[in-house]
Design a protein that fits this description.
Blueprint: H1 9-37, H2 43-68, H3 79-112, H4 118-143, E1 146-147, E2 161-162, H5 165-188, H6 190-193, H7 201-229, H8 237-240, H9 242-261, H10 265-270, H11 307-311, H12 337-340, H13 347-353, H14 367-373
């Protein structure tokens, strides 16, 4: 006997409210760091902004659905309320597909700036194409699973044609397979890419967070898939589908938060948070020794674009290197006294003028400190 007074909407409401607040805060911090603090806003940041906008829309659909009766038994609602709740449930599911696509594209493009070998570069590009195509096809399949489209939530429309429940579950499995494969790919691929790089504990912690993000995302997908596999009957989907809807929010929400928070290291540096201050050599000016990173073969795997253009926003920086392994670029000796006193100008004058002093004892903090923290880490692969 079904208890019509049961209501599981509180789980949806709490999850959506908490994750929406946390994702907005984390993306706002990411945007401030990349657009204002380091002035280095790139494609992956735009994609994350799109993902956040879609997640906000998805949470809005959940809120509207709860007001109509999402989380309650279908039999406990009037027909108009049931139709309204089913509509917002369907729309929230459709936006989940788009949301995960933009999150994965953002993360893959971020990893492209770490890829200096062709095998990693092309592996990531193939994954980007697969994710984009697969997600787009499933999104439109989900939208048009019923003809006319409103018949997906309004069963009173005469002459409507819809796919079976088994086909809906099969589509969910298809999306989950792609999601799990790419989750593990993006979690494990950075290991060989940066295996030989000497990094500080803070940089290693950042990489661990990124790897953990991919592993957690795959686990969240499996949990969501378990609940979806139990939905063999649509007659009470507003109540029975609540656990799956909760994980539909958790998976993209946690992904947005984690992938955004790992980019705010320059802000922590600017705030002089202990453990995120760079060694003095991290603010050394660009010189001939570190101005143009080299890649295997002397070029870039992606074509004419220079390695520095691709890698300049990588979260693994000169400041992350162990100073015992990389003591910094060699300092040129000061020009002769005669030249300092106004003698004939030589090339040493212009080169010496590039050497900007670092504040003694780390006192004070300038924009240059933040920009130095944004220098990309490159390895001599010649």
């Amino acid at each position: 006997m079904v208890n019509l007074a049961e209501d599981s909407s509180s789980a949806l409401l709490g999850t959506a409210t908490a994750l929406l607040a946390l994702t907005c805060a984390s993306v706002a911090l990411r945007t401030y760091v990349r657009a204002s603090l380091t002035r280095n806003f790139q494609v992956d940041d735009w994609l994350m902004l799109v993902a956040q906008a879609i997640f906000t829309i998805s949470c809005t659909f959940i809120f509207l659905g709860i007001r109509a009766g999402l989380g309650k038994h279908n039999a406990a609602l009037s027909q108009p309320d049931e139709i309204e709740a089913l509509k917002f449930q369907a729309l929230a599911t459709a936006t989940y597909i788009l949301n995960m696509m933009f999150i994965k594209l953002s993360y893959a493009i971020f990893l492209l700036r770490l890829a200096v070998e062709r095998r990693y570069y092309w592996t990531l590009w193939v994954s980007i194409v697969v994710v984009a195509l697969w997600s787009t096809v499933l999104f439109f399949w989900d939208i048009f699973e019923c003809l006319p489209v409103p018949a997906q939530w309004d069963h009173t429309i005469p002459g409507a044609r819809c796919v079976s429940t088994e086909q809906v579950v099969a589509a969910a499995y298809s999306l989950s397979v792609m999601t799990i494969v790419t989750d593990w790919l993006y979690a494990l691929l950075p290991i060989p890419m940066i295996y030989h790089v000497k990094m500080t504990k803070q940089a290693k912690a950042t990489v661990i967070v990124l790897l953990g993000l991919g592993i957690f995302a795959s686990v969240a997908t499996l949990v969501r898939l378990k609940y979806l596999s139990d939905l063999n009957e649509k007659s009470d989907i507003l109540f029975a589908g609540t656990p799956a809807m909760v994980w539909t929010l958790i998976e993209p929400g946690v992904a947005i938060i984690a992938s955004s928070l790992v980019t705010i290291r320059p802000l922590l540096h600017a705030m002089r948070v202990k453990g995120f201050l760079s060694p003095d050599n991290s603010t050394a000016p660009l010189s001939a020794t570190n101005r143009a990173p080299r890649t295997i073969g002397g070029g870039t795997p992606g074509g004419p674009r220079r390695a520095r253009d691709r890698d300049r926003d990588t979260d693994i920086r000169l400041s992350d290197m162990d100073p015992r392994e990389y003591p910094g670029p060699p300092q040129r000796p000061p020009p002769p006294k005669s030249e300092r006193d106004g003698g004939a100008s030589t090339s040493n004058d212009s080169e010496a003028s590039l050497q900007m002093p670092v504040p003694a004892g780390g006192a004070g903090h300038s924009r240059r400190d933040v920009e130095g923290d944004e220098l990309p880490l490159t390895r001599n692969r010649g």
